[in-house]
Write a structure and sequence with these properties.
Blueprint: H1 2-22, E1 33-34, E2 38-42, E3 46-53, E4 64-68, E5 73-78, E6 81-86, E7 90-98, E8 104-112, E9 118-119, E10 123-127, E11 131-138, E12 144-147, E13 153-158, E14 161-166, E15 176-184, E16 190-198, E17 202-203, E18 207-211, E19 215-222, E20 229-232, E21 238-244, E22 250-256, E23 260-267, E24 272-280, E25 286-290, E26 296-298, E27 301-304, E28 308-314, E29 320-324, E30 329-330, E31 334-336, E32 341-348, E33 356-364, E34 367-378, E35 383-388, E36 391-393, E37 396-397, E38 403-407, E39 412-418, E40 424-427, E41 434-437, E42 440-443, E43 449-452, E44 457-462, E45 466-474, E46 480-487
Parallel strand pairs: 2-8, 10-16, 18-24, 27-34, 38-46
Antiparallel strand pairs: 1-3, 3-6, 4-7, 5-6, 7-8, 9-11, 11-14, 12-15, 13-14, 15-16, 17-19, 19-22, 20-23, 21-22, 23-24, 25-26, 25-28, 28-32, 29-33, 30-32, 31-32, 33-34, 35-36, 35-39, 37-38, 39-44, 40-45, 41-44, 42-43, 45-46
């Protein structure tokens, strides 16, 4: 019985002792608390999680353990810190245990791959003095930036944006200078941006005069053709568009619509070049030349006495076409007199010796309705033919190229005159050596009364031996031709 009582006493004392240990204020039975429950890391990063509450925060003898559920991370405990190293991508749960109380807490660690640097644009075209921003979309922060040529382009980072300033283009015309910009982040990742720097826009002319309906290509001197825009201040007067000519010339094509003035603005987004356009109304084409008295008058018909003639063309746009209904005439074109009029040159085709009438038409290029015509009467050169007893005589020539006829005394020669205006008279100091049939005393223009040949033909009888000559003149053109008779 005593043994039973003794054993019961020992058991009760043991329970009391256990009860006293659980209530020991030196060993508080508290939950573990961590300063964070989720951690995001990149591969290679190190991070810390603080154990902010456990059995004690000050007892260096208190131990904690930390266990990762996979090898994505490596963990170890140093005092009240859980040290985490990211090894590979994925999500891992870490369990932290208070060794004394066996209380636990968990933290979830997500490991991401080190991000590449990405930007909203990695290839740019810029104009000298232009400023542009490139947004950094992803990366590891703490960015730095360098330019391959700060003489041409500068770069800096502001608030996750790369600020680019174009300084200078070393090339001419429409060529560009290429610059490489390199962005580097905290993880030494890099991203390259290519920037092409162009010259500012320039144009070959700032003032243009056109006729309504006319189109002109105004050359561009420099700039980035792809960045240019062009606009007219008044499309009712003239329109404009960017164009590449057949020869490859980059230009602004201006089309004149109606009389007036407007401004064509050509801009590259940085610089605007202005072109003042004046559109003139197109006047009807007229042809002017000398009349019989030498006065300048508008002509519809003209007698061409020589081999060539110049006429004045008024109206039109300065761009003309010249056509002939026969090829007895030709033209070497129309030139600008620089006074609002133009000079038309007409010449006889030397292959055609005879006269005739040719209609010449001068028309505005691209608008044949605006045209004028002139009838050119081609006056053939003076020509003599000789016959005796019904037989034609072939004359000889003297040193000046004039005709020489050898005949006998009392011979009768018929002289027929053709060419020029058909109004002829005789002139010479030895007319009394001949007897003429067919001559009429009549007015011969400014020469007064003369021995004229109204029919164009006369009979000549040789009445003196010797060598005698006379001339026949056209008293409209004043041209004359000599003939010498050697009378035996």
């Amino acid at each position: 019985m005593k043994k039973v009582i003794l054993l019961l006493s020992v058991f009760i004392m043991g329970l009391a002792a256990i009860s006293c240990d659980d209530d020991d204020p030196a060993v508080p039975n508290r939950e573990i608390q961590l300063d964070k429950t989720e951690v995001a890391m990149f591969i290679g990063d190190n991070s810390e999680v603080m154990i902010s509450q456990g059995t004690t925060n000050n007892d260096e003898n208190v131990e904690y353990t930390a266990v990762a559920e996979n090898d994505n991370i490596t963990v170890k405990v140093m005092g009240n810190k859980v040290m985490i190293t990211a090894n590979k991508t994925g999500k891992t749960k870490v369990t932290v245990t208070d060794v004394q109380t066996q209380k636990t807490a968990e933290v979830t660690v997500t490991v991401k791959a080190i991000p590449e640097i990405t930007v909203d644009v990695d290839n740019l075209q810029m104009i000298e003095s232009q400023v542009k921003e490139v947004e950094i979309k992803t990366g590891s922060g703490n960015y730095t930036v360098t330019s391959s040529s700060e003489n041409n382009l500068t770069a800096k980072v502001e608030n996750n944006k790369v600020v680019l300033t174009a300084v200078k283009c070393d090339e001419s015309g429409f060529n560009s200078t290429e610059v490489k910009v390199t962005i580097t982040d905290a993880k030494s990742k890099t991203k390259e941006i290519t920037v092409n720097v162009f010259q500012k826009v320039d144009i070959s002319r700032t003032k243009v005069e056109l006729f309504a309906g006319e189109t002109a290509g105004i050359g561009l001197v420099s700039g980035n053709f792809d960045m240019l825009t062009v606009e007219s201040s008044d499309k009712n007067v003239a329109t404009a568009e960017l164009d590449v000519a057949e020869n490859g010339l980059k230009q602004v094509k201006v089309t004149a619509a109606a009389e007036g003035t407007c401004t064509i603005n050509v801009t590259d987004g940085v610089v605007t070049k202005k072109m003042e356009v004046t559109v003139k109304a197109v006047a009807p084409i007229t042809i002017w030349g000398p009349d019989a008295e030498g006065n300048e008058v508008e002509l519809k018909e003209f007698d061409l006495k020589g081999t060539e003639q110049y006429f004045t063309v008024k109206g039109g746009t300065g761009k003309f076409t010249v056509t002939f209904d026969e090829n007895k005439l030709s033209s070497n074109g129309i030139t600008d007199n620089e006074d609002g009029t133009y000079l038309l040159h007409i010449a006889r085709n030397p292959e055609f010796k005879d006269g005739g009438a040719v209609t010449v038409k001068v028309a505005q290029e691209g608008n044949t309705e605006n045209s004028a015509e002139i009838k050119i009467n081609i006056i053939a050169p003076l020509k003599f033919t000789y016959t005796k007893d019904g037989q034609e005589i072939q004359p000889g020539k003297d040193k000046d190229g004039d005709d020489v006829i050898t005949v006998k005394l009392n011979d009768v020669v018929t002289l027929k005159v053709t060419g020029q205006m058909g109004k002829y008279y005789l002139d010479g100091s030895s007319l009394d050596s001949f007897e003429f049939t067919g001559l009429v005393e009549a007015e011969a223009g400014i020469f007064g009364k003369q021995k004229t040949i109204p029919s164009g033909s006369i009979d000549i009888k040789m009445v003196k031996k010797g060598e005698y000559y006379f001339s026949i003149k056209d008293y409209i053109t004043y041209n004359k031709k000599w003939v010498t008779f050697k009378i035996e």
